[in-house]
Structure formats: structure tokens, C-alpha cells
Amino acid sequence: MKKKAAAVLALVTLAAAVVFVPRAPSAGSLLANGGMEGGTTQDTLYWTLDGGPYSTQFNEINGPEGWVSWWREGFLCSGTDDWRTGRPEVKVISTVPDPERVHSGEQAAQFFTFWHCHSGGLLQQVAVVPGHYYTFSIYAHSWFANCDLKPHYHLPLDYDCDTENPILWAQDRLSVGIDPTGGIDPLGPNVIWGERQEIYGVYGEPLIMGRVQAPSETLTVFVRSEASHPLKHADSYFDDAALLDVTYQVFLPVIRSNR
Predict the structure, then answer these.
(1) Is the pTM of this model over 0.90?
(2) Residue 94 half-sphere exposure, CB side, CA atoms within 13 Å?
(3) How far apart are CA 139 and CA 41, in angstroms?
(4) Is residue 119 one of the residues assigned to a domain?
(5) Sheet harboring 118-127: ordered strands across?
(6) Given 3-state DSSP classes, what are the helix, strand and coil percentages for the chain, each rounded to the nearest 5?
(7) Are 92 and 50 in contact (CB under 8 A)?
(8) What domain range includes position 200?
(9) Residue 184 falls within a domain, yes or no?
(10) Is residue 255 part of a domain?
(11) Rounded to an integer, what distance in angstroms lies between the CA atom of residue 198 and that of residue 200?
(12) How far apart are CA 190 and CA 200, in angstroms?
């Protein structure tokens, strides 16, 4: 089968295996649509207790163009043995009505569940130079609550609508990872994950993963949200992602393994 043009991310299913044609870097940026300012796509990859990866289009999943929405569905929540992870909703949001959810520009990506915990996020395969070193970063934050307000989002640093009884027992851990071999399984043995962080309510410092050497012509970046409990609202926001070639910036630490 011939590959499509390098500038197009294509999803191909062959003998129940999902294969991606990596998107080539655009001028001035190694990631396609790193600022989330483009259109939308329904490309998905997900895993269930029956296996995976599967790829299905869902009406409630319209992620940022150039990215693939991924998740693990039916697995135990990270914070409780009584509930299991659900299918998320994914969309591209604007600065209206909540400008704090967009880090820069006019758009960001939102990944969220309703009365479900979740484990998932976005991934993108990128054409790179074998032997070069790369670092990946993205701005992200979470917001969660068990009730609604009008307008929907209250002061960003409140844990919940009921400020007298904040839900301090819940977490949404955010992290980024790189598979230097270009794999698409976020739990694959070659994925190098950064530290899980809790960034609540507003954007802070970016999540960063690097310095990772690419052994081949394809590299995959992942961003992950892990909501610990099945709250009414469990939202994560992603914006301003960057994959940089840092081969000649030797002052950066070299990441060699997950350990």
C-alpha cells in the first residue's frame, strides 16, 4: 500500500492493526496544529478490556486537527475500585465564555468525562531525523466539580461549587510522554513518560518531556489526563504544544528510560 502525502495523517486498518502515516513537520514547528488553532478531526484510538487499539468515529469526539484522541475504557479508576474509566468527549473550544481555558490564541483542546473517571488524551506521530534528540512540551490544566453553576465555570481556583466542602480527595493527574520508536500504544514498553502533575484551574508551567533520542524516522508524542474519581465534571485542557529538535542544546538532560 502506498503512503499518502507526508503532510496528511492517515489512519489505515490492516488485519485488525491500526497504522498511522506520520505527519511531516511544517515550517517553524515539528508538530501539526500545536497551537490547537486549526479545525477538528474524529480520529481515535482506544483500548477496552477486550483488547485494542480500536478506531471508531463518535459524534462526541471532535479533537484538534492533526491529533488523535486516545483513551482506555472499562479499566478501574485510579482513585477507586468501584468505578471504571469511561469514553471521553473531546472538542476544540474558544475563548468564549472562558478565556482562562485557552493559553494563547483563540482555541484550545478540551478532553472531559461526565460522571466517569478517565485515562486518555491526545497523541501525534511526527516525522523526525534518526539520531537527533527531541523534547516535547504542552500547556495543560484540569478542572473538576460535582455540581453546576451559572455560568458553568466558577472561579478557576475553587475546587467545587460548594467551597465549604471542597473535594480534596479527587485528583486529575496530567503528564506527557514520548515513544521514540513511533509506537501508538501509550502503555507500550518504549514510551517514556514524564512526571504526573496536578495543575488545577489555570495554566501554569508547561508539562515537559525530554531529551529523547529518535532511533528512526518516526516519533510519537502523548499527552495524558487521569481523572481519579467519577465526578460530574472532569475536564482537562491542552494548548500550545511543541516538539523541538534539541540535538545541539547539550545542556539539556538526556532521558534514557522510565526508571
Answers:
(1) no
(2) 3
(3) 20
(4) yes
(5) 51-54, 44-48, 68-72, 118-127, 218-227, 172-179, 192-193
(6) 0, 45, 55
(7) no
(8) 37-245
(9) yes
(10) no
(11) 6
(12) 29
In the chain, the DSSP E strands lie at 10-14, 17-21, 40-41, 44-48, 51-54, 63-64, 68-72, 89-94, 107-113, 118-127, 133-145, 172-179, 192-193, 207-213, 218-227, 233-245
DSSP 77: P
Residue 44 backbone dihedrals phi, psi, to 5 degrees: -140, 155
Please, which residues have CB within 8 angstroms of residue 178's CB and are 6 or more apart in sequence? 134, 136, 191, 192, 209, 210, 212, 219, 220, 221, 222
**Grid coordinates representing 125?**
506521530
Q: CA-CA distances (angstroms) from residue 73 to 12, 33, 50, 84? A: 22, 26, 10, 8
Please report the pLDDT score of residue 22 as a whole number.
43
β partners of residue 237: 110, 141
Alpha-carbon distance 87 to 90, whole Å? 10
Cell numbers for 223: 499527552
Q: Could you report the per-residue pLDDT of 81-96, keeping only the tens digit for each?
A: 999 999 999 999 999 8
CATH number at residue 178: 2.60.120.260
Residues 195-226 pLDDT 10s: 999 998 889 999 999 899 999 999 999 999 99
Number of domains in the chain: 1
Q: Are 106 and 138 in contact (CB under 8 A)?
A: no
Q: How many residues does the chain have?
A: 259
Contact indicator for 127, 6 with CB cutoff of 8 Å: yes
Query: Is the residue at 147 inside a domain?
Result: yes
Amino acid at 99: P
From 174, 169, 152, select the one nearest 229 (Cα to Cα).
169
